[in-house]
């Protein structure tokens, strides 16, 4: 004889299946609608985009093109011409350096962490922060910053802090 | 009399007395009336979106539509396409979470 627990399990599975079926129907209906209306990444559009980007890449790579459509002298609808590399200079909000606009994207890649080097930069600074708070200073009597944690952040990590002022208990004894 | 709408005749009161609602039906009604069914659906929808299950299903649909041509596909086709794969690819943690909540509801609603 099946006890109440087994009934419960079976019932739960039944209702879970019910919910799932509803959601599957929703997803199918949504995809169907998107497909029929031809919105949101139409396949022909994608293929068209791929084709155009391949074309553009070929045009850029081909040096002999500068005869007819030199980028510098192409005129836009307002009658303005633009240099091929944007030349405005502004400040990167992540590292604070002055960057040429045309080089901003590659700069951000390195600066914000797509690459191996950028990620190393980040972990180096965070482990330095950890070391600041957890290691006791080799010069144990020197502690002008021992009272408040906020002034410690001003120091650039070259001075350790005397351990006894910290109550979070994460420092190790020398 | 002209019937503009096809519908089955209204059942007599006499017919219903033999049938008692099953346990499943009772619980279903309780789920809906308390609003818990709606909450569970939203929870499941959210979890499935977070784990990428919805995107996987949409990709399957898109591939199928691309193969068949978008004017030859019905909602039914897509449902039959997704259902077996959809049921099989639910992450265990999501399933466990939902089952747990349903079970708690059953326990709390049981008289």
How does this structure look, described?
Chain A is mainly α and 174 residues long. Chain A has helices at residues 4-37, 43-61, 104-112, 116-134, 149-152, and strands spanning 89-91, 98-100. Chain A is 49% helix and 3% strand. In chain A, strands 1-2 form a two-stranded antiparallel ribbon. The model of chain B has no long low-confidence stretch (mean pLDDT 88). Chain B starts with 12 loop residues before the first helix and ends with a helix. By secondary structure, chain B is mostly helical. Chain B folds into two domains: 22-51 and 92-111, no CATH class; 52-90, ENY2/SUS1 (Serum Albumin, Chain A, Domain 1, Orthogonal Bundle), CATH 1.10.246.140. Chains A and B meet through helix 1 of A and helix 2, helix 3, helix 4, helix 5 and helix 6 of B.
Features of the shown structure:
heterodimer, A: 174 residues, mainly alpha, 5 helices, 49% helix, elongated, B: 111 residues, Serum Albumin, Chain A, Domain 1, 6 helices, 0% strand, flat, chromatin regulator (chain B), nucleus (chain B), transport (chain B), translocation (chain B), protein transport (chain B)
Order of helices and strands of chain B: HHHHHH
The average pLDDT score of chain B comes to: 88
> How many helices of chain A does DSSP assign?
5
pLDDT averaged over residues of chain A: 68
- Strand segment count of chain A: 2
Computed structural class of chain A: mainly alpha
What's the story with the biggest beta sheet of chain A? 2 strands, antiparallel
Low-confidence stretches of chain B: none
The coarse silhouette of chain B is flat
Distance between the ends of chain B: 48 Å
Q: What structural class is derived from the secondary structure elements of chain B?
A: mainly alpha
Strand content of chain B: under 5%
Integer count of domains of chain B: 2
Helix content of chain B: over 70%
Largest sheet of chain B: none
Strand order of the largest sheet of chain A: 1-2
Kindly provide the radius of gyration of chain B, computed on alpha-carbon positions and rounded to a whole number of angstroms: 20 Å
